[in-house]
Amino acid sequence: MSTSKPSLFADLVGLNDEVIEAMYEGVLGELSTVDAELVELHLNKKIHSETIKFAVNKQGTPPTLGADYDNDLIYLAVQQKQQFDGLIKARDALVERLVVPPHRVSKTMHEFHNKLTADTGVGGTATLASEIEMFSRFFELQAILRTYHENDTVQRELRKTRLDLLETIKSVNKNDRKIIQRINQNRERSKNLRNEAGRLRTYMKNNKKTLQRPMPPKPDVGERLFSGEAITMEELASMLEHGGLIDEKPASPASPSKKRKKSKSIRRSAPIRGEPKQQKKRG
Amino acid sequence: MQGRALLDVSPEDIIKAILERREKIAHKLPSLIDERTAENNRAYRLAKESHDALKLLLEGTETNQTEDDAITKARNIYEENEAFRRRTVSRLQTAKNQLQDHEDAVLFWSELIDKGWGHLLEDATRVEGGGVSSYALMKNKKNNGGI
């Protein structure tokens, strides 16, 4: 006993040609919407990745955001990173100017103060020269410590901005993962829609229906074409219908001249006219 | 004294504290010098006596074992006393130098408290004015090969 497989077109049998045509058009419309969304998602993903790279110093420049880009989180992350960089620069300039870290300033000041003022007995007294040196250094250290205290806000702001940036980047990363999920979902959807469109098209073809519009080309067709690989007539038709032939890079101006040069360099030989020279007879 | 409290210390406070400490020690030093002088005198006398004793033994004509032992013993005593004398001279000189240093210091800081200490606070003033610290200057100089 054998069981026959259910037909791939079982649901289409008995439907009007116009209905199937409309279904086909509908699938194509949905497919182009999904593909457009996919492109947008890829762009958004790129911006998210570049923002994360910029925030963790793997990339020196922030991502280029279009005028119509409206993701506040990305703008916030870029702004916080730029603020963080500015504060780091201010802190580095301060450290470069003062060199000695605050804890060492405090410690040395305490030591100098003790040596200058505490009663150490006859033997433990510093000489006048070292006393003068310590006196001068003590007040320089005092000025350094005061400067550190005045710039305490920079340190506090730096710590806060760093934490804020970390939090923002966490959210950007989370969104980035969500975009990846959506890209995968859309890819799956696009694949299913392509299959469905192909099924409808095949059915219509089998029923001798002339197609109004071919299916949109797959994303890799353009790449294959311009890398010199062969494409089918159907793919070419779909590219003509949906675009993809003229979006590619223009041919470089150097290439034709190069070709011409090459063709010129081919040596051509032709028969010599006239009689061939005779060899001189030896006398 | 720690942290914030050290920020409130003024140059005048430090100079006053230095003068107070210096004067306190300067009062103790003359008696210390007297002690050191007495010690030095005693050491000088001992060294001289042992030197004379050794000289006397060396001038003798007898050359037996007992005489040699006595000379060795006298030489050891003389060397010990001479070393002690040198130590006391050094101690006395140190005490005298300390007294001189204290007198100079008291004079210097006393004049400073009246005339002002501006020239000693050049580095502090530069830092307060937004300039680099002397530590940064030293570091830069070191990095530039001492130029």
Can you summarize this structure?
The complex is a heterodimer of chains A (283) and B (147). By secondary structure, chain A is an all-alpha fold. Chain A has helices at residues 17-55, 72-98, 102-117, 128-150, 152-206, 219-226, 233-242, 254-264.
Write the topology of this structure.
The complex is a heterodimer of chains A (283) and B (147).
Chain A: H1 17-55, H2 72-98, H3 102-117, H4 128-150, H5 152-206, H6 219-226, H7 233-242, H8 254-264
Chain B: H1 3-7, H2 11-59, H3 65-115, H4 122-128, H5 134-143
Helix pairs in contact in B: 2-3
List keywords for this structure.
heterodimer, A: 283 residues, mainly alpha, Helix Hairpins, 8 helices, 67% helix, rod-shaped, B: 147 residues, 2 domains, elongated
Walk me through what this model shows.
The complex is a heterodimer of chains A (283) and B (147). Chain A has helices spanning 17-55, 72-98, 102-117, 128-150, 152-206, 219-226, 233-242, 254-264. With 283 residues, chain A is an all-alpha fold. In chain A, helix 1 (17-55) packs antiparallel against helix 5 and helix 2 (72-98) runs antiparallel to helix 5. The longest helix of chain A is centred in the middle third of the chain and has 55 residues, at 152-206. Chain B has 147 residues and is mainly alpha-helical. Chain B has two domains: 10-116; 118-147, no CATH class. Helix content of chain B is 83%, strand content 0%. Chain B has helices at 3-7, 11-59, 65-115, 122-128, 134-143. The two termini of chain B are 38 Å apart. The model of chain B has no long low-confidence stretch (mean pLDDT 88). The interface between A and B is large, with 33 and 42 residues.
